[in-house]
């Protein structure tokens, strides 16, 4: 699978690199691993649900683990292993649909994102702007939509407290090292 088919991970990896954080990507597609390595990127061929694979990425030192693929096989096992290797790792998980969130909540992920929910949120903000809503109205409605769609969003304080972690992406895992500046981010 080529990188263009994975815009979430690609975007997050770019953001991390632009902030001087080099993510490590775990990928099940050997061609992709070779391409990434050829570009000078840290890439591991393997299954993120295997302890040995996560250990090779340096998850024990990572700030974040980010699961970015839309179909999450073995997500619970990846999260369990990542936390066993690094109990303080910040775990972010992407789901495609809102209906997937209830099953993911008990896995121990710090943050869950649904593509379907994020589209609804973005469209709501766009409509409100077009209607002339002021920033406070948009913020209030954003909070309401998040509460309606995502049920239990983290408070800003909780989100700040959980701002570091390694990264995983379905059958791909990316871990980013902790930096001296405290920067962290997700990767595919």
- CATH-defined superfamily of the largest domain: NAD(P)-binding Rossmann-like Domain
* Domain unit count: 2
Mean pLDDT rating: 79
How big a fraction of the residues is strand? 15-25%
- Number of distinct helices: 8
The Rg value, from CA coordinates, equals 17 Å
CATH topology of the largest domain: Rossmann fold
Distance between the first and last residues' Cα: 13 Å
Number of strands: 7
Task: Explain this structure.
This protein has 188 residues and is of the alpha/beta class. The protein folds into two domains: 3-110 and 161-177, Rossmann fold, CATH 3.40.50.720; 115-153. It is 43% helix and 18% strand. The protein has helices at 7-18, 30-38, 51-57, 75-85, 101-104, 115-130, 135-150, 156-161, and strands at 24-27, 42-45, 62-67, 90-95, 111-114, 167-169, 172-177. Strands 1, 2, 3, 4, 5, 6 and 7 form a seven-stranded mixed β-sheet that branches. Strand 3 (62-67), helix 4 and strand 4 (90-95) form a beta-alpha-beta unit. The longest helix has 16 residues, at 115-130. The radius of gyration is 17 Å and the shape is globular.
